[in-house]
Amino acid sequence: MIEIRFPIDEAFAQQLEDYFCEEYQEYWSIEENRLTHENFLRGFFEDQQVLAEETASLRKEFPSLPDDPPIKELPDQDWKEAYKLHFKPWSERGLHWVPLWEKDTYQLPEGEEIVYLDPGMAFGTGNHETTRLCVRRLLDARDEWGSAVSAKRVIDAGCGSGILAISAAKVGFTDVTGFDNDPDSVRISLENEKLCDLDGRIDFKWADLKEGLIGQTGDLLLANILANVLCDHAELLCQSVRPGGWLVLSGILASEVKAVHAVFAPVVENHTGTLPDMDARIEGEWSDLCYRF
């Protein structure tokens, strides 16, 4: 295994993180040294050819990528451990998200729930703002619906590591489905489902947005996808929400949220008879939108 490491500044690290959120990738990770506050872009590759191809591809998107970064051969064990550096446990309202390698040491408070994840290089640890925005809406729905959550259906469109669907099952939703257009994400979601002792409880499948939603409706539809994809499928997304349900959109830059709302508001009005106010939350450079039907 070959490692390449680029020193980068904080602003560039944020640009790359935003890009990786929107574009599926399996080779790159971003890390910050908490003591020195230095940032690095790290890549891990099977051989020199893949390294050269992926670096050239990334440099087309980011011409300012530093030249001549250090490259070194890694023993297999170093490769397996490297991606763990940037995934730390976090919790909110009685639900904890914990990396698998801390399963034996993490202290879970009595009466609370835990989601174990081993995302590898896939997107979906919950550390990115777009995922956290969705998780908070999920917990809002749990809190508002109370014991009725067991009769509600959750759809996780673009499931990534499965974190949202698994979280829904952990807080009491019993009818949960998730899909993604990347087969590796579906595989990782199924593995994480087993890690959380939910094997068979969630219906994960490989599908794009149209395939995943045609003929399907849910009480809580979570769509953490690109803003332009959301807008292109506004009617499909809205028609997939049951009366009394919620549509939660994420993956939206804060600078785009008004434009996305302008697309969705009239579509929601066609379904509900009421023009919705903009219910948006902003975290960092990212925003969500929530519509009630």
Summarize the SSE layout with pairings:
Elements lengths: L1 E7 L1 H13 L5 E5 L6 E7 L2 H14 L9 E3 L2 H7 L7 E3 L2 E5 L13 E5 L11 H17 L7 E5 L5 H8 L4 E6 L2 H13 L6 E5 L2 H5 L4 E7 L2 H6 L1 H6 L1 E13 L3 H16 L9 E2 L2 E7 L1
Helix pairs in contact: 4-5
Question: Could you please describe the fold and organization of this structure?
Answer:
The chain is of the alpha/beta class and 293 residues long. It has two domains: 2-86, Alpha-Beta Plaits; 90-292, Vaccinia Virus protein VP39 (Rossmann fold), CATH 3.40.50.150. It is built from ten helices and 14 strands. The strands form three sheets. It has a seven-stranded mixed sheet, with helices on both faces. The protein has a four-stranded antiparallel sheet with strand order 2-3-1-4. The longest helix has 17 residues, at 129-145. Keywords: Cytoplasm, Methyltransferase, S-adenosyl-L-methionine, Transferase. InterPro entries: Ribosomal_L11_MeTrfase_PrmA (IPR050078), Ribosomal_PrmA_MeTrfase (IPR004498), SAM-dependent_MTases_sf (IPR029063).
CATH class descriptor of the largest domain = Alpha Beta
Poorly predicted ranges: none
Total beta strands: 14
Provide the CATH topology of the largest domain. Answer: Rossmann fold
Strand content: 25-35%
Number of helices: 10
CATH homology group of the largest domain: Vaccinia Virus protein VP39
CATH architecture of the largest domain: 3-Layer(aba) Sandwich
Task: Give the overall pLDDT as a whole number.
Answer: 88
The helix-and-strand class reads: alpha/beta
Q: Please, how many domains?
A: 2
How can the largest sheet be summarized? 7 strands, mixed
Shape: globular
Question: Would you list the SSEs in sequence order as H and E?
Answer: EHEEHEHEEEHEHEHEHEHHEHEE
**What is the radius of gyration computed over CA atoms, rounded to a whole number of angstroms?**
20 Å
Give the helix level as a range of percent. 25-40%
Task: Provide the spatial order of strands within the biggest beta sheet.
Answer: 10-9-8-11-12-14-13
Distance between the termini: 50 Å
